[in-house]
Design goal:
This protein has 12 helices and 2 strands. By secondary structure, it is mostly helical. The radius of gyration is 19 Å and the shape is globular.
């Protein structure tokens, strides 16, 4: 196996585990507690990596203006996104929350039209409709006639998480600083904001021994190692091919959910996820001589 595919596989494996691991953590911890501890661990891991690789010196090259912008992006893409996603998982099944959250690639297209001035083509419109139809199937567990029974708060929170990450993904395109340093800053923002909120709410819950493995798994492996291997995969391989592989993540996530938390996978989850991914594929696959994103 080529190195780039090995690194991409490691990334998909760990990112796919996120929904199941967080579902277990959220059974005994609050959303903000999970966010606080995982952010702290991620910052420590990335800071150690940046120290070992000599990247810490790059902090001095970041202007105050750029730092403020990066803090805003970090608030959106780490604190808001993870906070909303974690909260939605306390309201819905893990498979529902994670699949609906996979609207974020569609949100990238929407915000690219507004911010990067890309055109909204008929194919992009069709992909949006397909993906939102997929969300409806997942949210109703396949019973589209029971739209009134949708968990509006859970579904809405999931969609807001996808919106946050889609906007974050578009805004990061304009950040040209080292990606490992910027990710350390992004998670630093999440750690600081969650610290303030927990302090204002009465303090910091002490973790039990059985909760630490999940926190360390998230902070080190999902946020640290997986990000590192993903960066390496993109550096070594073809960016388009590597990016397409990441759409295997939600399918891997369903496997983790089934085996780790014992949640039966509904047929509606497969059907809805299939439509969402189909909507994404319509934008990234070459169609004759034209590329759907152009």
């Amino acid at each position: 196996m080529k190195k780039e595919y090995l690194f991409a596989s490691i990334t998909i494996f760990f990112w796919g585990s996120s929904a199941a691991v967080n579902a277990l953590l959220l059974q005994s911890l609050s959303t903000m507690t999970v966010l606080f501890y995982t952010s702290i661990v991620a910052v420590v891991f990335l800071a150690a990596y940046n120290l070992v690789t000599g990247r810490m010196a790059l902090l001095r090259k970041i202007s105050l203006r750029d730092l403020i912008i990066m803090c805003g992006i970090g608030f959106l893409g780490t604190f808001m996104y993870n906070g909303l996603l974690y909260y939605s998982m306390t309201l819905m099944k893990a498979q529902q929350a994670f699949i609906i959250n996979y609207l974020w690639p569609i949100m990238v297209v929407v915000f690219s039209c507004f911010i990067l001035k890309q055109k909204m083509t008929p194919r992009k419109g069709i992909s949006l409709l397909l993906s939102f139809f997929g969300v409806a199937i997942v949210a109703t567990e396949g019973d589209l006639l029971s739209l009134g029974n949708i968990d509006l708060l859970g579904t809405g929170t999931c969609i807001l998480a996808a919106v946050s990450y889609g906007l974050y993904s578009v805004l990061t395109i304009r950040v040209t600083h080292d990606k490992f340093v910027t990710m350390m800053i992004y998670y630093g923002v999440s750690a600081i904001v969650s610290t303030v909120i927990l302090a204002a709410g009465g303090g910091f819950p002490v973790l039990e021994a059985g909760q630490w493995p999940g926190i360390l798994w998230d902070g080190v492996l999902v946020y640290g190692v997986a990000f590192t291997t993903w960066a390496l995969a993109l550096d070594l391989g073809d960016t388009a091919k590597m990016s397409n592989l990441i759409y295997l993540t939600p399918f891997v996530s369903l496997i983790w959910i089934y085996f780790l938390i014992g949640e039966p996978i509904e047929w509606s989850s497969y059907a809805g996820l299939g439509l969402i991914i189909l909507g994404v594929i319509l934008q990234i696959v070459n169609f004759g001589k034209k590329r759907l994103l152009t």
